[in-house]
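Go through this pair.

…
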Amino acid sequence: MSSTARENGTQKFADFMVDARAGELYRRGKKIKLQHQPVQVLLALLEKPGQIVTREELRQRIWSSDTFVDFEHSLNTAIKKLRLALGDKATKSKFVETLPRRGYRFLAEVESSDEKPVVKTGRNAMEGKVCTLVAEGGTECVLAPVDHKALEEWRRLLALDDDVGVSMMITEKRLLLLQAGKTVRLLAHAGGDGSYEVRILEGEHYGRTALLNRKSLKESAQEAKPTRTARTAG
């Protein structure tokens, strides 16, 4: 990762984006309130994903030698606040791994970019709407990855024409098979690729959330009122 990308660009991982210059963290376009020190810890970890960043490296970078603070307490507090912002857990971490008495390691894949975060200024007009699933011509079902990680894996398998891999994702329920004509509720705009996070209102996967492209959604004429009996729908 170049110094220019670190200082001026953005870094993306999972549903998050970090504006390095502004020192701001976003999740799906929503700014997450995070204090200066936790942000600086995050930036240090993002510079060396998959590698150990020692506690001493963090002290030298963030806490100057002439600052009279309890460094151990301050760093532990910063890590705790960072994990809270990321929805991470120390015991089962997806992002920040603790290496006792040594330091920390960032676990997720990090992508550098020059694009700026697209900040949500208000609720999208489609959010909360009930839509009907629309399948591509000649098919009766729509495939919906359960999250962004599954979406990336699905795209990779499609590029490789790996039908077996796609079938395994369906079997493991990381890629949901949804019947065309069933209804979902749009929860949020999930990314710049036009995908939406939706709540499934009918069928086998009733109540679950997934990601769907806008072209697979048709706004319903009437708002559906889901019931538990919808679980038995095909």
Observations:
- The domain at 3-113 is CATH 1.10.10.10 (Arc Repressor Mutant, subunit A).
- The chain has two domains: 3-113, 130-232.
- The longest strand covers residues 183-189.
- Residues 1-6, 223-234 have pLDDT under 50 and may be disordered.
